[in-house]
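tokens incoming
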């Protein structure tokens, strides 16, 4: 446990590094902060804090910088005592963005990631409500031209997706209507896993009776659901990462980071954990060397009984945590409100 003096010194060092991204020594800290302690006292306290693993040196002659453990202590024990209000302008921007009516869930997810990135200049990720237990509420087949049809799928969670697929030239409009009727009778109102099961077993036998053309509807449906899953995930401000990557990092690592944030299973697992509220993961806590210099803040929000959504922010470990967390608190509240209106 840190003493009050050590807490003060750790807080000042972290705030300095967040603002200037440079190590600080005891003399500079005393001058900049007007501490009522001698340089020697501050130096000794910094050494004790370093021994606890909360500070580290870049090299032998430099000042100290926060360690991953130091940031963790700061987030868990110091931020809770501080209060940094979000400006009225930012609050109004967020409220205005999410109080507009939306016609699709994808629009809300995209807006949340783009806005969070714009407000922070970091990379933001949005994840809409889970599609696994969604129910099929709408299905249409729309002829485009001879040999091509568009399938449109709508779920109870507000997702809308389409897929164009090829059909035999002799696939008539009458057969299209038959397929739509079969799907409406047998599939509407069922969960997506139930739909998959029926497409594997019952539907092929029924369509064979009424439709001469053989079409792999299971494959078409699978492609649509894959697109649904991709569309519930959106990355905003991916190029912002370039501002915080080590200049010496080789190109392959840069590519690996970009590949990771653009929907890889790993990044999903990082912020798909079931938690309520806001969670902070710092550097090595994410168990991935590529992210050792980053922090990930995630915020969950309720979607009116339709599961949870998530917004996340990936930025440097020296991000202004209090400011970012407060922005995300407002956003999760407004997102929850927006989904309540959406599902009415």
């Amino acid at each position: 446990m840190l003493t009050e003096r050590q807490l003060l010194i750790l807080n000042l060092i972290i705030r300095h590094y967040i603002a200037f991204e440079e190590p600080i020594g005891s003399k500079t800290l005393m001058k900049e902060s007007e501490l009522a302690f001698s340089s020697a006292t501050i130096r000794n306290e910094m050494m004790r804090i370093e021994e606890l693993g909360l500070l580290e040196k870049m090299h032998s002659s430099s000042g100290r910088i926060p360690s991953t453990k130091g940031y963790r202590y700061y987030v868990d024990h110091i931020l809770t005592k501080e209060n940094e209000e979000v400006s009225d302008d930012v609050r109004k921007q967020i409220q205005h963005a999410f109080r507009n009516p939306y016609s699709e869930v994808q629009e809300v997810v995209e807006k949340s990631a783009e806005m969070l990135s714009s407000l922070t200049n970091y990379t933001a990720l949005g994840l809409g409500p889970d599609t696994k237990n969604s129910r099929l509420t709408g299905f249409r087949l729309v002829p485009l031209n001879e040999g091509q049809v568009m399938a449109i799928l709508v779920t109870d969670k507000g997702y809308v997706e389409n897929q164009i697929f090829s059909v035999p030239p002799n696939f008539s409009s009458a057969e299209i209507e038959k397929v739509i009727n079969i799907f409406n009778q047998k599939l509407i109102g069922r969960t997506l896993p139930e739909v998959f099961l029926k497409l594997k077993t019952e539907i092929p036998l029924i369509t064979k009776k009424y439709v001469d053309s053989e079409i792999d509807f299971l494959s078409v449906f699978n492609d649509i659901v894959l697109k649904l899953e991709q569309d519930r995930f959106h990355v905003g401000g991916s190029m912002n990462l370039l501002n915080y990557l080590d200049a010496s990092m080789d190109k392959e690592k840069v590519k690996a980071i970009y590949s990771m944030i653009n929907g890889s299973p790993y990044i999903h697992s990082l912020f798909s954990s079931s938690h309520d509220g806001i969670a902070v993961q710092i550097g090595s806590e994410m168990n991935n060397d590529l992210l050792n210099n980053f922090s990930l803040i995630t915020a969950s929000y309720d979607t009116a009984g339709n599961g949870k959504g998530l917004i996340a922010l990936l930025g440097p470990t020296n991000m202004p945590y209090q400011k970012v967390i407060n922005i995300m608190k407002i956003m999760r509240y407004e997102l929850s409100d927006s989904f309540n209106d959406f599902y009415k």
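note: The longest helix spans residues 321-342.
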